[in-house]
Structures are given as structure tokens and as C-alpha cells.
Write a structure and sequence with these properties.
about 475 residues; two-stranded antiparallel ribbon; Outer membrane efflux proteins (OEP); 6 strands; alpha+beta
Amino acid sequence: MDSRPFACVLGAAVSVYVAGCTSPFDIPDPIAVNAINPPPGARNHRPPSRYRADDVPTEAFPALSADSSPDGYVRYALFHNPRVEQAYQQWLAAADRLPQVRALPDPRLNFGFFVNEVETRVGAQQARIGAQQTFPWPGELQNKEDAASFAAAAAWQRFQSARLAVSERVVVSLHELAYLDSALQITRDNLDLLRTVEEVIRARYRVATGSHPELIRVQLEYAQLEDRLAQLASMRPSYVADLNAALNRDSSAPIRSLPDLPGRVANLSADNLVEIARRSNPQLLALDDLIEQQRMLTEVARKDGLPDLTVGLDYIVTDEALDSSIPESGDDPILLSFGINLPLWREKYDAAVRESLANRLAVSYERADQANRIFSSIHRAWFEHTDADRRVRLYRQTLIPKAEESLRAYLASYRAGSASFLDLLDTERTLLEFAIASERARADRATALARLNTLAGEIVPTTPADQPHDVENNQ
């Protein structure tokens, strides 16, 4: 018998109690069961779960505050998100199948009364009490338990997959919101800059060195930026609602501004991440377990076509004989019986075997297709992550500093009257677009890394984005 599924099921129950500590872009391990408990009033709306303990103080379960870290948001979601709880309950249901399938069929108890008593030498038979127990073919119950164990192990992997998916959703939502908050702040800074330019133009206009069209043009540009700022601000409630949905909170629950989330960069190649996914991706591991489950069910189908043994014991209530001097008068006989069923209709048993073989092949092909999808997605996410990191470095190390230097130079020249207003305005626009594009690239880098964590099935090794790093080439 393969002990792996049983180890998975037992190990899963233990691993719920393990707490993890990770970076803001990582996916934390399950929260310690002794540290979580549903808030008062929520118990009537949540199913019982071993994922939460009822004897823990209310202040022990995860909560959000004004200074919560991204890791705190992820932990909160893992506790509150209904998708995680659904997958956990499904694992509990699958685990509870084991004691059901390994048990013997229920014994049968029979009672019978003779309407017309049968007169025998030792007395009249009045009633019969019997019990029967059926024993399946040797190994059939063990195969059923093995199949249920593999199914429970697959359910546990689906639970892990749900946790990874929810963690990715929270991380992506956080960074989209951080991008929006950064874009809002950049736009406000550019409004302040345009206000300064407008003051310079007004000063020049008063001394007849500036033109009225220039003043109108900067006011139009200022109005356009104000409209852009209003549009960005109106988008924030929808971004907040998306994050709150992942946290299972009210859509209007406030979320603090998150413009300065730290960045991390993967330092493994796509091929190395594919190898990690081969051994760690929970979707692939769940399909591996389902393949083994079908293999066990094939053995069950084969043994289901073999005879089962039934052992019976009958006790016959006997009255005293008419002639009480007869030896053994009134003795109650006991009958031990044995029987087997006759599986003569072979077509149904052969069809059950063929069905289990076809199911196993179907799951095998599903696993191959899923592996191809996951591995190709890793290459795509790796490209998006590294390309976004390249863009962040290009904007922050080269383009934005040059644009800032150019803007300062044009502003000084314009004050001195040696530069045109259009050149100054074009430089300001360029700096605005570079700054927003840089924040977009930072968000893309983080969301692609979150995707890589989900696809790999474990935390991808990373280094801080503000430190020198050299991502391995994708060979």
C-alpha cells in the first residue's frame, strides 16, 4: 500500500497549525489555528471550521489597521475570504470519506416467527434470530480507502491552490491601488508645477515680456490636468472595492493610501521556475493524486466483480418436546452459515473497469494539458516581470532624471527669456508621462511576481528592487 496519500492527509491537518512570515510580495503559509477566531456575531454566518478555533480571544484573530502592511492584508484575506474557506471545507469533507469507505458493510439482524410451529423430536420451533456479516473480497476495502486518501490529498492541494489564488488577487489589487495613488500624487505635483509656471507667465505679462496666449495656454493645460486628477480620484472607489472584495469586506470600507510599496525582483530564470512548478504547483499535484485515485478505483472495480463472503449465525427458539423425557428436549439449536454472492453478469463489472481506466486516462491528459498551460504561463509572467523591472530602471535611472534636468533648464531659460513656452510645456508633459509610466511598470513588476508565485506553487526567491541584482538568463 502506498503511504503517500495518508501522509498527505495527516500532514495537511498538522500544517494548518504552522504560521509563516514572508515579504510583502510573498504568499504566506497558513495562519496558526491558535491565532484566529471569528469575530463576535459572525459565527452564525460562518460554517464551523478547524481553520478557526472558538476558544481564542477575539483580539487574537487577524485584523487590519491604518498601518497594516501588505503582508497583513494577505493574512487577513486568507482568514476571511470565502473561497479559501470553501476549499478548506471541501478538504474536510474529503478527509471524512476515509472512515466511511474502510468500514465493513453493516451487519444484518433477522427475526422470524413460525406461524405454524414446526414440531421436531426435541420440541416445536417457535422463532429464529439471526445475524449476518458480509466481508468484501480481500483488499477491496483497502483499495477504497487508498482511493479516498488520494482524493483527500487532491482536495488539500486545491485548498492550497485557493490560498495562492487569493493571495495573488490581494497583491495585485494592492499594487493597482498603489499605482493609482502614485498617479494621483504625481498629477498633484505637476499641478503645483504648472501653478508655478503660471505665476512666472503672469509676472512676465505684467512687465510686457510675456504674451496673453501663453497665459491662456498654461491655464488650459492646468484645467486638463485638473480633469485628469478628478478622473483618477473617481477611479479610486472601484479599486478599493476590488481589494475589499478579496478581503471579504464591505466595498466602501476605507483603505489607506499605498503609494510606496516596496518592490522585489525574482532572481531565477523561467526554466528554473518551471522546474519548481513541476514539484510544487498544487494544481499539478492535485491531478497527480487524482490519477492515483483512479488507479485505486480500477482495483476496486476489478475486486467488485469477485465474490463476497457472508457469515451468518442463527439461533432458533425451541419449546419443550411433548415427551419431556426425550434427551435434549427444548434445547435451542445454533446454526452457523456461510455464503457467497455469484457475480455472473460480467458485463457490468467489465464496464466498471473500463470506466475507471478511461477516467484515469482523461485525468492524465488533463494533467498534461494543465502542465503545458502552467509552464507557458510561467515564461510569459517571467518576461512581463523582467521587462517591467527593465522599464522601472530605465525610467528611474535615466529618463526621469534627464527629464527633470531638462525641465529645470527650460524653466530657468524661460524666466530669462531665452526659451519658448511650448518647449517648457512639452518638457513638463514628458516628465509627467515618464513618472506615471514608471509607476505603471512598478505595478506590473509586482503583479507578474505574484503570478509567478502562484504558478510556481511556492515563494519565488527574490532580492529587493533597490539593490543591485542580476536575473538569470532564460535559456
